[in-house]
Amino acid sequence: MRRRPHRPVRRSPARPGRRRSRAPLPSRHRFRIVVPLVLLAFLVSVLLVEAYTTRGFAGDQAGRGGGPAAGVPREVAEGGPVVDTTRDHLRTHRTPDKTVVLTFDDGPDPTWTPRVRAVLDHYGTPGTFFVTGQQVARHPGVLRELIRSGHEIGVHTFSHRDLTTQSASQVDRELALTQLALAGAAGINSSLMRMPYSATPAAVDGPAWSVARHLGDQGYLLAFIDQDTNDWRRPGARAIVEAATPRTPGRGAVVLLHDAGGDRSQTVEALKTLIPRLQAQGYRFTTFADVLGTDRLTGPVDTAQLWRGRIFVTAVTVSRTAVSVAGVLLLVVGSLVLARCVLLLVLARHHARRARRSRTGRGRPVTRPVSVVVPAYNERVCIAKTLRSLAAGDHPVEIIVVDDGSDDGTADVAESLAIEGVTVVRRPNGGKSAALDTGILRASNDLVVMLDADTVFAPSTVHRLVQPFADPRVGAVAGNAKVGNRRRLLGRWQHIEYVMGFNLDRRAYDLLRCLPTIPGAVGAFRAAALRDAGMMSGDTLAEDTDITMALHRAGWEVRYAEDALAWTEAPASLRELWRQRYRWSYGTMQAAWKHRHALFERGHAGHFGRIGLPLLAVFQIFTPLLAPLIDILTVYGLVFGNRLGTMLAWTGVLAVQAVCAVYAFHLDGERLRPLWALPLQQVVYRQLMYLVLVQACLTAINGYRLPWQRLKRSGDVVLPPQPSTREP
Fold it and tell me: At what angle do helices 26-54 and 686-702 cross, to 10 degrees?
């Protein structure tokens, strides 16, 4: 059923207190388009920041093998562990006798750095912490505590890359990001640098010396080591103490330890023994600044750098929080998706068995005549096929075609067919709900079947559709709508969606007695029930969902007849599909909001409100809104994470979907061949549906009504061989 695109639409009374508007403003259209893109861009930015600032690195244990020492000055290879190549001069410094500089690499770590600091503070011992920008940005508070305790801070690059494998611009970027993190976390910069994977000055090779000269040009003093404890190997606290003790009694030493990169409990225990032992032997502990005879090697940053750093650290914090929240939401969504699939399979199997028993033990069939109402607006290309399919049915019917102000000759075509029992009613354009009400009032029978003018019925559809009315409690029955134009890929995707999603859902809802929607393509109603529910309403853009919920609230049962088949024309282009689903999604939210008071009502109305509405909200709004996380985090995992694990997880999700699809097709008696398009549907089609739902939610939040969207019809619905509903 189509609408004039220019028709003014009133705001739904279901959303009181909002400003009325006859049509969305152009700026609102832009808002609804831009906001999803902004949200997507934000999430992608968050993931990129998180990926770069949490990219794992191998510790100093993964050091590269030394190369030729060609070009390395002898005073460096044979000199002390502090190398100064700034201001075009070369100078090295040794640690004074009876002096030890304790250095810690790869931090700060939220677990082990505070424990190391606590031991150092207990013995009044200063330490030098060579920090990575990644860890500083993620744990700024840990760095600030180190500075408050008087410990020295040095630079260990941003992501612990081997600088000898990087270009000069990449080296500069590593240093700049680290200084930015230091500025944002503590308002300082540092001119003390230790290159990742470096060791003693004697181990410096040609490539490392080239980088050292470049770092000197940038104003950095380079710190190497005298003794490596290899504490990353976890050799035991005693072995770490022995490795940290100066080899030559009385000589000074720069000792390498780690406060991050793994379990550092042995390092902490070793410090508790090492520090008092060396103090008892007359050693003192100091920093590189003291060795160089200067007050400090760190300094405050200017205001501009301070704020740039704060913005950077804040971005990292926000990204970390957002990714953590996304991880929790992903777990929730994954659990909901799995629970939904299991629930659908169990309920669908039970429903099929119940339907078989119902057909076997059914009493006298419903044979009285039925009125069929066909609302039509500019349906010239398909009205004839629809009416002929109704006339070929095996149940006595009267057919009422309500032409809702068509300007393409739809009514003339209907009248020219000269089909017995067809009445054509012409009326000014007033909307689909008004057209349906007109047809209902003209109906001479107490059972009324409604279908869209682009829908084709099987000969047995009407008869099967009205059989549940043998139960006087039933006020409406939903039929089994199928896609009739499924020859193209988009049609196949919608065919899978109809069979797997809509109809499998309806089986579950039917069993739970809370079916929320009777499709406009195929539905039957008891006239008395329609009157009790207030007839068709134009309050929402989903009049079929609105009337179904109203029937529940009026105390009527709503059933699903899976063997009452109808083939409808699905949108043939992405643009038309977007328009249709946008209206469906928004209309469903309108209807749910309008009937929200069912949550607090008694009887069957309360049953629907407390079961049907929450299921609708969780599985048709909340879960689909969050489901894109699965796909976005899959891409994130493939690019930055564990590719094999990510692919296995995504394949597992697809396998669950495939199981549901195969079983749904089996129950509906459909061939499985179209399911070859299922993986591609999950990659492309599903993303489109996500965006439609996001846009519909934003429209609902804005409080604006959508105009009816006119869909183009091709009239190419093909009635396939009628499948039979199979048993589980």
Answer: 120
Q: Tokens 């510790």 belong to which residue?
A: 59
Backbone angles phi, psi at 397, to 5 degrees: -140, 155
Tell me, yes or no, whether 359 and 225 share the same domain: no
Do 486 and 543 reside in the same domain of the chain? Answer: yes
* Domain membership of residue 377 as a residue range: 26-43+326-702
Alpha-carbon Rg for the chain, nearest whole angstrom, is 37
**Whole-number pLDDT of residue 16:** 36
CA distance 676 to 660: 14
Alpha helices in 460-612 (DSSP H): 461-466, 489-496, 504-512, 527-532, 543-553, 574-594, 603-607
What pLDDT was estimated at residue 35? 57
CATH number of the domain at 627, please. Answer: 3.90.550.10
Point out the residues that are catalytic: 105, 258
pLDDT in tens, 139-184: 999 999 999 999 999 999 998 889 999 899 989 999 999 999 999 9
CB 685 within 8 A of CB 676: no
CB 524 within 8 A of CB 451: no
Between strands 397-404 and 422-427, the pairing is: parallel
* Distant-in-sequence, close-in-space partners of 510: CB < 8 Å, separation ≥ 6: 351, 478, 559, 560
276 and 400 both lie in a single domain = no
Average pLDDT on 426-451 reads 91
Classified as helix, coil or strand, 384 is helix
Place of tokens 């009239």: 715
Summarised one tens digit per residue, pLDDT across range 198-229 is 888 988 888 999 999 999 999 999 999 999 99
Would residue 81 count as lying in a domain?
no
Task: Concatenate the DSSP letters of all residues of 251-285 into one string.
Answer: --EEEEEESSSS--HHHHHHHHHHHHHHHHTT-EE
Tell me the C-alpha distance between 140 and 144, whole Å.
Answer: 6
